[in-house]
Amino acid sequence: MNFHAAKAFILDKLERELSHQLYYHGVHHTLDVLYTIEELCYLEKVSPYEELLLKTAALFHDSGFIVSNKEHERLSCQIARENLPGYGYTVVEIERICGMIMATRIPQSPKDYLETIICDADLDYLGRDDFYDIGSTLFEELKAYDILHSEEAWNRVQVSFLEKHSFFTQTNRKRRAPKKQRYLEELREVVAAYEKN
């Protein structure tokens, strides 16, 4: 399993082929998920081998956006299956990686421990200081793809999303959930103000 070569390959591909309209789902998001996985693996005491599988899944998890912004998880698995054998990954390893990628699909549905880690890493920003900054890039992307148009619609989506979301790992329940709850309360107030107007 040549992780470093696979990493160099996919980051180069993402840099060259992702749309510039992916203000949220760009290479910066992939790297953010990768670094968060490194933190979570350390804090959750994940074995080095499983950490490599997780980091590979992080690098490939949004690569499907190269092809389409619809069904991108399935397309990401396709890209992983086509390319990872060339870097010494076995069929079993690739299927585990694809399981992790598919678990990040919204609503998240992790089926095992490693899948819970990538799910938490993918949405780590929900409980971080950069929540509003990162959220605004997602809003810009949704506008660019003609999915949402108004700030009111965006804030309503955020409230609904935060209400349904929960972190899976002990680490993120402790370090991210309280701040995420604060953001939810702030956004509920914003949305309540729309009702008064």
Can you characterise this structure?
With 197 residues, this protein is mostly helical. It has one domain (3-196): Hypothetical protein af1432 (Orthogonal Bundle). The protein has ten helices and no strands. It has helices at residues 3-17, 27-43, 48-60, 72-83, 91-103, 113-122, 131-144, 151-164, 170-175, 177-196. The longest helix has 20 residues, at 177-196. The chain is globular and about 60 Å long. It starts with a helix and ends with a helix. The relative contact order is 0.12.
Q: Gyration radius, to the nearest Å?
A: 17 Å
Under CATH, the homologous superfamily reads: Hypothetical protein af1432
Q: What is the 3D form? A: globular
Q: Average pLDDT, to the nearest integer?
A: 97
Q: Spans of 5+ residues with little confidence (pLDDT < 50)? A: none
Helix content estimate: 55-70%
Q: Which strand-content bin applies to the residues?
A: under 5%
Number of helices: 10
Largest sheet: none
Predict the CATH topology.
Hypothetical protein af1432
| SSE order | HHHHHHHHHH
How many E strands? 0
Question: Structural class, from helix and strand content?
Answer: mainly alpha
What would CATH call the architecture? Orthogonal Bundle
CATH class: Mainly Alpha
Number of domains: 1
